Amino acid sequence: MQLSCNRALFSSAFSIAASAVPSRTPKDILRNVFMAVSSSGVELVGTDQEMAIRFKVGGVTTSSTGDALLPTQRISSILRELQDEQLDLTIDEKNITLKAASAKFRLSSEDPREFPPVPSFSEQNYFRIPAPVFRQMIRRTSFATDTESTRYALGGLLLEFGEGTVTLAATDSRRLAVATAACEKEGNPMAPTKTTVVPTKAMSLLERSIDPQAEFVDIAVHDNDVMMRSGACTVYSRLVEGRFPRYRDVIPRSGNVNVPLPVAPFFAAVRQSQIITDEESRGVDFQFGSSMLTLSSQASTIGESKIELPIEYDHEEVKITFDPKYVADFLKVLTPETLVDLQLTDSDTAAVFRVEDSYTYVIMPLSQDR
Q1: Quick one: which of 218, 230, 206 has its CA closest to 156?
Q2: Per-residue pLDDT averaged across 252-257, rounded?
Q3: pLDDT digits (tens, 9 = 90+) for 70-120
Q4: 192 compared with 99, residue with greater pLDDT
Q5: Pick from 230, 247, 264: which residue ends a domain?
């Protein structure tokens, strides 16, 4: 089997497929990227058997068909170091030869028939969301998951389909991020009856792999797994078992005051307030007074800080304490010109940050007696 490839395109596709390859596994076969060459093109596949990605490679010329296993670590190193524009691959039963203008490598290869099967997207009924919108939804929620939690459902993103809408929700029990968008149906997909929680790793992999030119993300949910397709990329994942919290109950229905906050100056003030914090005193006091927000922090081994930010505020004074990292995580996924609406009740009640009607972020305050 022989292929001639654009090295940059092949390297990019290989890197995406390799991101699903486990760094540690008792099954050595999974340390490879599976390559399928057919009349419809070349596809690279990586999997850890819980999650998998298929990626179609552009810029390949071949008259061959067949399958091969590419050792991930060695091929990644070769592709990273080569600078040549063109790359030729020759594959037989035992060896892979990679040849560029300036270098030639020969690697041993394993039997591709031993690689576990990975589903392809063959659904007729699925939900369809604009790709840039879904990518943004993942970025706005995935950071709020808890990948180290023993409550496994907190290590994933809740995926819900309503009448013409799709919602992603994530929480680590101290904060909650919820993003909603419009979606369409292709065929007659049924909204899942079971709670659908997709592992954070699978969602993040999809977010990184969506081509900027892709129009849509297609999603088909089954009882125990999910298939997500966008352009050249298809991600398969098993669903996370466990109960996801009743997140709607966490969001306060209304607050005493609403404070408009432009992201750029607010984010700058929050970053400054983080400087004088440590593990023992990580909280920052956010004091809302007459036309001014004052952020105060103090750490016994470091010192103290006070940052002032003029705001639109004409209500009774409210002081609430946040972990500034949680506020910063939210702000850094927004564009600088975004206007955030902060809903405050008192110093002990969760604060709600909203961006229009599509994005809600809830933070539990810290005790002020820390």
Answers
A1: 206
A2: 82
A3: 999 999 999 999 989 999 999 998 899 999 998 999 999 899 999 999 999
A4: 99
A5: 247
* Residues 102 and 137 occupy one common structural domain: no
- 119 in a structural domain: no
Residues 284 and 236 in one domain: no
What six digits make up the tokens of 131?
């790709």
End-to-end Cα, the chain, rounded Å: 66
Same domain, 136 and 240: yes
Residue 370 lies in a domain: no
Q: Mean pLDDT over all residues of the chain? A: 92
Whether residue 368 lies inside any domain: the answer is no
Q: Whole-prediction pTM value?
A: 0.91
* pLDDT for res 243: 86
Q: What is the pLDDT of residues 124-141, one digit of tens each?
A: 999 999 999 999 999 999
Q: Quick one: 108 and 130 in the same domain?
A: no
The letter for the amino acid at 239 is L
Can you give the CATH number for the domain in which 160 is found?
A: 3.10.150.10
Q: Do 238 and 258 share a structural domain?
A: no
Kindly state whether residue 149 falls inside one of the protein's structural domains: yes
b/e burial code for range 125-150 (CB count within 10 A of at least 16 → b): ebbbbbbebbbbbbbbbbbbbbeeee
Contact yes or no for 296/285 (Cβ under 8 A): yes
pLDDT of the residue at 153:
85
Assign 278 a pLDDT band (cuts: 50, 70, 90): confident
For residues 240 and 264, membership in a common domain is answered with no
The amino acid at residue 238 is R
Segment 335-360, tens digit of pLDDT: 999 999 999 999 999 999 999 989 99
Phi/psi for 8 (5° steps) reads -65, -45
Say if residues 54 and 44 touch (Cβ distance below 8 Å). yes
**How many domains, in total, are found in the chain?**
3
For residue 90, the enclosing domain spans 2-114
